[in-house]
Amino acid sequence: LAEESPDSAYHSHGSSLEEEAAERMDDEEQERLLSYWQSVGRGHQVDVPRDMAEPIQQLTRNNNPQERQSIPFTLIQRKEKLGDLLYEKRQYGKAKWACIKMKEKQYEQSICLGFMKLMRYICEQNSSGLYLGITVPIVTIVHTNEAQSAMTQAVTVAYYLPEVLQDQPPHPFDSDIIIEEWPATIVYSRSFRGITNEDSIMREINLLAAILESPELCLRDTFIIAGYTNPAAADRHNEIWFLQRP
Questions:
Q1: Which of 1, 107, 122, 194 gets the highest tally of CB atoms within 10 A of its CB?
Q2: What whole-number distance in Å separates Cα of residue 86 and Cα of residue 56?
Q3: Are strands 237-244 and 218-227 parallel, antiparallel or unpaired?
Q4: Are residues 55 and 115 in the same domain?
């Protein structure tokens, strides 16, 4: 047998040390991200389980703006007043979404838990075994009573499937996640920042209802909250969407 040269021995040993160091840094990053999400979760009375460490890390690494795919729409109208944008009227096309229905005590709990389930689906827990990629916004369908004075507990958190997966969406391993095809829809959209809870959502619904010239053209009890930043962020970029009646 040929003797291993000191040089090759060093390289093979050196590379294994480098791999160990990389793994250790990988583990440390996972722990740091998990503990951050757990502390944020506690603020929303949500328990973030240990098995979320890998999806959180994967999502964080892929979460630069260049990697995100925006949901396509056609801008129909922009309504402005004294240079401020009041709302936009948009047309969204027919598309497939991964949806999960949630009914926690608080809205923030529902969106955090729903988002975590969708994260697992996006991060390889699907029939393709692949990372599916982030699309923005992640949306939540909320319902109110007819008078628009209070929200119901049941919400649907939904992830728009990237263009390349629209024809054949990977199947979720989680049976709570349903792939739905939504029809083409016209929405009236208004931007707002900060946390989303029952109070802030009802305030935004009432604000947009007061601004719209013909609110009667829209559904009175079904609205969408579109989130452009993850639920762990404090200063979130959100939109409230009114849906035009079919």
A1: 122
A2: 35
A3: antiparallel
A4: no
